[in-house]
Amino acid sequence: MIFLGIGSISRRHYIGGLITFLVGAAFLLPRLGWMDSDWLQVYWPAAFVIVGLMLIFEPRKKNSYHYNSRREDTGGEDIRGNAVAGKVKSDFINTDGYVESDNTFGYVEQIILDPVFKGARIRTVFGGTVLDLRKTKLDSAKTYIDIDCKFAGVEIYLPGDWAVNFHGSPIMGACEDKRFNASMEMDKEHILVVRGIVMFGGIEFKS
After folding, report:
1. Residue 118 has what pLDDT?
2. Residue 111 in contact with residue 76, Cβ under 8 Å?
3. How many Cβ atoms from other residues are within 10 Å of residue 192's Cβ?
4. Concatenated DSSP letters for 192-205?
5. 167/116 Cα distance (integer angstroms)
6. Contacts of 139 by beta carbon, 8 Å cutoff, 6+ apart
7. How far apart are CA 5 and CA 129, in angstroms?
8. Nearest CA to 122 among 70, 61, 77?
9. H or E element: which one contains 128?
10. pLDDT tens column, 77-96
11. Pick from 118, 205, 111: which is nearest to 164 by CA?
């Protein structure tokens, strides 16, 4: 785990890499006799508090894709069918099929009604985000969703024939495709690529 942490830090995944490194060191140092085995009971809660504060105040990453920098909320509809206001506390913005969601200690549910889904950046810390893409479609060969999920959960509802590739770094987390599409032919011309970090949380694809 120490080497995995160093590898993550070298790829600029500082928070996840640091946590992995510290967890590995916590179990290795007592075995080497460099530290009392009882130290975990004393310092472990404090370590989680520090990590939590680091996650909350972590600087927001700029989006790696080039879209119009002037983003105005085009509105939308949440899963319960209620209108969603422009800029709310969760900072959910939908602009011409591109979605940005920044959610900390909150819960967001959103249906995308744009004809074409162009991508998303989702950051969820100690919260939950639900994104419904069943009323839109993919136009590009590859459409990207960047996810930063820490101590949280992200649910993405998709049509059963969408092909999904996940490229990420799960750390004490998971990414699962729970759609039932055994008898459905997949659309191989349009691929949804989901990438990012999942730490102490999970990403689920549902239909």
Report:
1. 95
2. yes
3. 24
4. EEEEEEEESSEEEE
5. 23
6. 116, 118, 190
7. 27
8. 61
9. strand 128-132
10. 443 333 333 333 456 788 88
11. 205
Q: Give, for 153, the enclosing helix (H) or strand (E).
A: strand 153-157
Nearest to 156 by CA among 199, 105, 193: 193
The radius of gyration of the chain's CA atoms, rounded to the nearest angstrom, is: 19
Residue 129: predicted pLDDT: 93
Q: List beta partners, residue 165.
A: 193
**What residue spans of the chain are helical by DSSP H?**
2-10, 14-32, 39-56
Q: Is 55 exposed, middle or buried (0-12, 13-18, 19+ CB in 10 A)?
A: buried
In the chain the first and final C-alpha atoms are separated, in Å, by 35
Tokens 């889904």, located at residue = 117
Q: Mean pLDDT for each 10-residue chunk of the chain (207 residues)?
A: 48 56 63 60 62 60 39 39 39 84 88 94 91 94 94 92 88 84 79 91 91
Tokens coding 119? 């991508």
For residues 109 and 79, the answer to whether their CB atoms sit within 8 Å is: yes
101: its two tokens:
């969601």
